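Intended use. Records like the one below are meant for learning the mapping from a protein sequence to its folded structure. Do not use them to infer anything beyond what is encoded.
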Amino acid sequence: MGFYSQNDDTEFRKPGKGRAKNGLKWIAVIAVSAIVGSGTTFALIPALKATGALPATIAPASQQTSTSGSAGSSSVTPVSTQVNVTVNNGITQVFKKVEPDVMAVVNYGQTSSGGYFSSGSSSSLQPVGVGTGVLFYKNSKYGYVVTNNHVVQGSSKLEAVLYTGKHVNATVVGTDPYTDLAVIKVPLSAVANITPATFANSNNIQTGETAIAIGTPMGLDFADSVTAGIVSAKSRIMPVEDPQSQQTLDYQAVIQTDASINPGNSGGPLLNIEGQVMGINSSKIVAQGFQGMGFAIPANEVQNIANQILQTGHATHPAIGIAGYSLSSLPQPYWPNVPVDYGVWIQSVTSREAQKAGLQKNDVIVGLDGHTIQDMADLRTYLFQHKPGDVVTLVVYRGSQKLSIKLTLGSMASPNTTAQGQSSSQSSQGTPYDPLNPFGPGQFGGSGSGSGSGQSSLGQYGN
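Structure written out for the chain above:
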């Protein structure tokens, strides 16, 4: 949601592929998750003003007129708005409290200059998108800001723009594409007098309670915009998509709200009436006839992933130790001889633990701990409900034979998805970040296994 980018309008484009998930097939088709919005951050606003589509000055609302009776003028007695005034005052106080914690996050990328007939071309850093972040922790050197992965992904440079309008350089601490979260840091001097935001227990959220969003819709011209609504639902299952391939990485439980969420709000806080962060805004549904359906990653999940990134520079997820495809994504002539048309086909077994458990190339995984596995997104979703070291039961087909296999899960560190992070990953592991593979190179704790760490593992999502 709210990443306002210069080169891509995927915020307003329906994903080309989706799949039924708990009766929400239509949602999976029209949800834009992992990326809300890319557009011309620094060109659109002046153009709108120039054409008159966006007036430079907003005319004040017209005044209400009083009614007149036959014997003279008399004004209509206004209906009491005591409750609304109380709520509005609360929203005002929340905004004043949290505004200093909220900052715009500007993503800079390398852009080339030089025409077709020019003798040469050069590249320079240019702002390509704007999202939002919220300060959640400080130490003696830095302030730490949580935002969305898709806000910082592919960046060559980041800037944070404080509520005062001051621009400061920011550095990526770590990213996690599987939850669409990232942590960046800014110098302590920039936030020395700001108290970090506090988080609510998202398990205690109530449907119908006030929800307040602060962010940077449509770029810096509208920084620190506040919108309000309610919590429409405590938990909705929505897809997390890779912002480049738009393939589904996961299905995630998120908070639904009707508070206006627009391009540029990504990574900003969804707050309760006490000013606590209930979630981090990440996506919305964009389809004709639909409005007011935004989604936020719950605060408890945000804290878990952000704290892992603070401690180690990445989030740790469980891993099976395989590379594979959704079976339905393979051309049928390449299908193994199995009696199903769904599941995950194992291209290779990359970890010692998976080999010891008995998994083999050409097996098709169709179940995990009682859950049906339709494709890679299913496998990742149910897998990530566990921890490294847990024992899970996989149901697989080996030809026509149906097997039950117990497997001890390994661990996988989330990749750094920025341009610099990808380069670092490539030098250390021999392969760049591949958003199509949710299982990693088959690492298992610190055992040194992971014979596939140098291969490019492939997968297909949402088919």
